[in-house]
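ok trying again, last paste got cut off:
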Amino acid sequence: MTPAVLSCLYEKYTGYAPADIKPITGSASSRRYYRLNGGTTMIGTVGTNDTENKAFITLSAALSSHGVSVPCVVSISDDNMSYLQEDLGDTTLYDIILHDGYSPRVIDLFKASLTELLNFQTVGAVHTDDDCYFPVKSMSGASILWDLNYFKYCFAKVIGCEINEVELEKEFTRLSDSISSAAPEALIHRDFQSRNIMIADDKPWLIDFQGARRGPILYDVISCLMQARINMPQKLRDELLEFYISLAAERFDVESAQLTDSVNDLSIFRLLQVLGAYGFRGLIQGKTNFISPIETALKSLAPLLQKEGIKYPYLLAIIEEAITKVQAIGCPQFKIYDNQLNVVVTSFSYKKGIPADQSDNGGGFVFDCRAIHNPGRYEQYKHLTGEDKPVIDFLEQDGEIQPFLAYCKGLIDMSVTKYIKRGFTHLEVAFGCTGGQHRSVYSARHMADYIADKYGVHVTLYHREQNTISEYNAPTL
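nice, full thing came through this time. structure:
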């Protein structure tokens, strides 16, 4: 139920009640977010921990008053459990990457975001008080070991890696000592990544900094550039890291080499944190959108552990074992019934690669939808998919999708007819577009409907980027 307290806070601040209050998608945390519409649009937050809320509120006031681009908190409940902040819209840097790829505009936005991060770090170091940080004041050796153990218990052991506790503890301690001594230190965001960078008026704004604390400044940059979901090319990652280091060296009056010394160990640590979080959210809690990036994170981590004379050989052995264990995790194993044709229809993003074929024959169809007019170019469709009516209407009224699908159906008809006649049991059909969100989703849904209705065979529809699966004509067992 929408909390009435947000309506009261809105009315107290504006002098009138909101026209409506709608829930909006939040983060992986238990906080709940709402958009309050009226003469003024605001974002309402309902938290579960008053100390965490106080951290965000206090940091927001200090940072915004000194010119850092963070949302201003404008109204707070007496118990600090709810508050209103200015509305920065719905577009994150992650959304723009998904839509545009690594275009010149995206690279400029990254550089602007890193510049704003440096402002956050340096202003925050001077104008915020350690007592407001939550849940700890600094990235100490103890807090680093907590995160490393999160990787051990929520990822490595969950997937069945055999752990020599003594050997792993030695390397965890060595890594922790390296990171806790990395310099220079300032206020770090602690969750700086593309989903926590809002883009409003083509300018970056930093959000979700309630976990900020003292720590090595490069931790934030590495968190962003190593984010598994955005799969940034290594050349661009190096360019952006060099851009930030040049700014930070001047701001902190240190040699660039002093900053680069800690890059590899911080990168290792960040990816271990990510794997712990993905293991908990995806493998333990069953949230499938956290499963698909696991293999990417592992494959990014392995070469880092092989650098600098292999400082962490036992950890490298665990990661190499983990890679072999998770090859199939990112792609669901679809139900295949004997003695009949099973068709898997998938939508996907070309940026994340063509889906793996699960059959032994290696065949099937991959259709490229990118020549079709893209609704994702328009603001009103960016947060919808090809399953939503406004997108469906756009594609059908535009008139390009129907002849495209007609050609696809002609090819599919020939194969399905022959496969049924010859007793084949598996056919893969995939539709790809830029983000795997609009054109490919629409096409895959319509092809799955078409095959299931016309031939009565078992069809599985898999929207890979949305992690949703539907079945048609499944036999009753």
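cool. Residues 93-325 form a domain with the Aminoglycoside 3'-phosphotransferase; Chain: A, domain 2 fold (CATH 3.90.1200.10). The chain has 15 helices and 14 strands.
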